[in-house]
């Protein structure tokens, strides 16, 4: 059986849609079953779904109580699903960043006869794009983490460090990868 995979933005949209649907179903349900005003129905739904548990302003009938029980279970399910989605998204992001950085550092350590592009400013970005388009090996050395992020977003190998430091160039481009950025 093939599992459906949703990007994290789609998962967040699904969570918000479920919450909105739950609030709408609860509001309409209380309005139809108990005959409450729309605002009272919405308020009763919020009290139920948020698990505050305050008794709605009007007492519930037997049918209203049964509906409230269903609404409670649906609310707990949606909240559990939302927590799972957001936890998964955070973990995927953190692990992806960690392992992606380690893989890139190993790739950088294996480079031979490569270009070193010093800086990811306007000119450095242009040079990196040209060298990449030609399929040539290169690494970008940038001391500004914000500019280094640009290289990461374009899947270019990048070292966060001062390109004018010979120690940074020698240590990072000719030896085993290191886990922390160069000073």
Provide an overview of this structure.
This protein starts with 7 loop residues before the first helix and ends in a 9-residue tail after the last helix. Helix 4 (122-133) links the parallel strand 1 and strand 2. The protein has a 3-stranded parallel β-sheet with strand order 1-2-3, sandwiched between helices. 64% of the residues lie in helices and 7% in strands. 15% of the residues are buried. It has helices at 8-34, 38-49, 62-110, 122-133, 145-153, 166-174, and strands at 115-118, 138-142, 158-160. By secondary structure, the chain is mainly α. The radius of gyration is 27 Å and the shape is rod-shaped. Helix 1 (8-34) crosses helix 2 and helix 1 (8-34) packs antiparallel against helix 3. It is built from 6 helices and 3 strands, in the order αααβαβαβα. The longest helix is centred in the middle third of the chain and has 49 residues, at 62-110.
Summarize this entry quickly.
The chain is mostly helical.
List the defining traits of the structure above.
183 residues, mainly alpha, three-stranded parallel β-sheet, 6 helices, disordered C terminus
Radius of gyration: 27 Å
Strand order of the largest sheet: 1-2-3
- Helix-residue proportion: 55-70%
Overall geometry: rod-shaped
Task: Give the helices and strands, then pairings.
Blueprint: H1 8-34, H2 38-49, H3 62-110, E1 115-118, H4 122-133, E2 138-142, H5 145-153, E3 158-160, H6 166-174
Parallel strand pairs: 1-2, 2-3
Helix pairs in contact: 1-2, 1-3
